Amino acid sequence: MDLIRNLFEKSVTLSDEDWEIFSSKLLRQEFAPKAVLLETGHTENYLSFIEKGIVRFYIPKEDNDLTFSFSFHNGFVSAYDSFLSRKPSGYKVETITETILWRLTYQDLQIIYSETEAGNKIGRFASEDLFQKKAKRELSFLNESPEERYLKLFTEQPHLIQQIPLKYIASYIGITPQALSRIRKRIS
């Protein structure tokens, strides 16, 4: 839990009282690989911080799932559009590796917003982190080739990308596993 406080305090000053309220609402949960955190058609109820692990977001398809995002340790994870709107999600969220999450429910976050001075700053910090990831991904698809997207992912998370099945990486960068294989041969 100290990890979370230290991360927040890089941009938000937390009084001991605010931290006590915030930390009392956090729920620590451990998940095995391939654990479904959110099913398609269900409403996201959690904003989570990843202490350990890798999580993927995908649209289930009959032939091949469409992976469109990953979240890694020391980052936030949530089907945030569903979390905010309180409407069902159009995609699934599942763990890829053993994962430890610190989770806040939607209702508890509303309490933190109303009962703490730093609550809104904490919420903004988390939402800005999630937004920046989404914007970065969209710009990547508009400005970079699949090879550039692969190299960027490999550069940013080299020790973690080895734990992600290649079919998920191929889907994430918008190509077939065979095309990813050709890229990997070309750059090695």
TrEMBL record:
Under Gene3D superfamilies, the record lists: Jelly Rolls
Q: Signal sequence: where?
A: none
**Superkingdom of this entry's organism?**
Bacteria
Cited SUPFAM superfamilies: cAMP-binding domain-like (SSF51206)
Q: What is this protein called?
A: cAMP-binding protein
The Cyclic nucleotide-binding domain, residue ranges: 29-113
Q: From what organism does this protein derive?
A: Sporocytophaga myxococcoides
**Which is one Pfam family of this protein?**
cNMP_binding
